[in-house]
Design brief:
Helix content: under 10%
Largest sheet: 7 strands, mixed
Number of helices: 0
Number of strands: 11
Order of helices and strands: EEEEEEEEEEE
Shape: globular
Strand content: over 45%
Length: about 120
């Protein structure tokens, strides 16, 4: 199983970035896919997730209204559209997968760095 994140980079505050996560080695239609992030010196935190059919994604309160999660099961890809970026969004962003109705995310990508300059 492999999850590969792309799309990170340096952006000014107020700007936008779109991350993608391409999954191989599992049937994504049976998995919840999620985004997490970890800033230097901080614990990894949940950003949002999308269940198997992509309906009604969940978001953390810190990103709700600014970030949008979508997925394309045919392309085995998860997306994270990040708008109105803030300096506090600077982090290493990971995607992860857990089998639908299971309790923990089992598969993780290597992460892609997002840096927001103020």
């Amino acid at each position: 199983v492999q999850l590969v994140e792309l799309g990170g980079g340096l952006v000014q505050a107020g700007g936008s970035l779109r991350l993608s996560c391409t999954v191989s080695g599992l049937s994504v239609s049976a998995y919840t896919l999620g985004w997490f992030r970890q800033a230097p010196g901080k614990e990894r935190e949940f950003v949002g997730s999308s269940n198997w059919n992509g309906g009604s994604p969940d978001y953390s309160s810190s990103v709700r209204g600014r970030f949008t999660i979508s997925r394309n099961n045919d392309e085995k890809t998860l997306y994270l559209q990040m708008d109105s970026l803030r300096s506090e969004d600077t982090a290493l962003y990971y995607c992860a997968a857990r089998r639908q109705f299971s309790s923990g995310f089992k598969y993780w990508g290597q992460g892609t760095q997002v840096t927001v300059s103020s």
